Amino acid sequence: MYVTGVVLAAGRSTRMGCAKQLIEIDGLPLVAHAVRAAAVSNLAEVVVVTGAEHERVAAAARAVAPGCRVVENPVFASGLSTSVRAGIAAASGESDAVAILLGDEPAVEPSVIDAVIDAFENSRAMAARALYTDDRGGRSPGHPVLIRRALWGLVAGLTGDEGARRLLAAA
Fold first, then answer.
1. Pair 170, 154: CB distance under 8 Å
2. b/e string for 68-91 if b means 16 or more Cβ within 10 A?
3. 67 - beta bridge partners?
4. What H or E segment, with its residue span, contains residue 3?
5. Residue 154 needs a FRET pair 20 to 30 A away by CA distance; which of 10, 99, 135, 171 works?
6. In this predicted structure, what is the pLDDT of residue 166?
7. Does pLDDT of 163 surpass 90?
8. What are the residues whose beta carbons fall under 8 Å from the beta carbon of 28, sequence distance 6 or more?
9. 77: Cβ–Cβ under 8 A, 6 or more apart, which residues?
10. Hey, which residues does 48 pair with through a beta bridge?
11. Alpha carbons 101 and 15: distance in angstroms, whole number
12. Percent helix / strand / coil, the chain, rounded to 5
């Protein structure tokens, strides 16, 4: 299965007062951690969607994954949905699915990405997402979110800060 990783890293992080994806942890910007995990996983390609701080975010992504493709979303201020659309539009024509990751989530390990791809590939599901177990045994949904090509047409209906939740519900 050919899966394109789409790292969403376009936001302004207005509540934080700075671009969250550029905050450093362990000497690297958050976005670099997310892009590196995607690049060393079993994803076939990695697309990074930028917007605010385009040049700095693109440089951070390329520093850890020179082969990633960077797509600038000029309308990122209109909400997350525009970045989801830009990332899916940039996926290779060979792509069977996209795996959506967030550029400000540095703790998603390549092994998690691979496990979700493996489970997804062996299922007939149209969409899937990672589930994380908390310290009390509860399960919480998280990223990556995988979406088969057959659902990509529904992306046009996403608006504002809506992400893949509606696509997951439609699957």
1. yes
2. bbbbebeebeebbbbbbbbbbebb
3. none
4. strand 3-9
5. 10
6. 63
7. no
8. 36, 60, 64
9. 12, 51, 52
10. 7, 70
11. 21
12. 40, 25, 35
